[in-house]
Amino acid sequence: MKAKIHVTLKNGVLDPQGKAVGHALSSLGFEGVGDVRQGKFIEIDLDTTDEAKAREQVDAMCRQLLANTVIENYDIAIES
Amino acid sequence: MKAKIHVTLKNGVLDPQGKAVGHALSSLGFEGVGDVRQGKFIEIDLDTTDEAKAREQVDAMCRQLLANTVIENYDIAIES
Fold this sequence. Notes:
The structure is a homodimer.
Chain A: E1 2-9, H1 16-27, E2 33-46, H2 51-66, E3 72-79
Antiparallel strand pairs in A: 1-2, 1-3
């Protein structure tokens, strides 16, 4: 199975990387660009074939390593 | 409108960041973890209400700034 994980900054947390991208886009002449937020996208191949077990395992991975839950949210999608 | 962009390394391009995450997960005791790939996830708020125009604009942003098309693929989703 494959897990696709999005790790994004929580609302209200300042995102300097996103701000830099927004400014760069404006400098390049793109108009009408509002807020820009940048997060991480992680794909993990898993041996297990049990979706519930996979989700539980990936949730533990996010809490322990992949996301800083003080300032970040994570979203998990499991694909077979 | 909101554009959601995934920027991922092309197949065959070495991903040291993903490898490091994979090793860290193994060190933490997670079993059955195969290949790990890490990419970027970017959300951009756009003023335009025309989906085709928004997609065209974001495609240009990806080619000019957000993705290195030599080694990275990008995928654009537009939401109203």
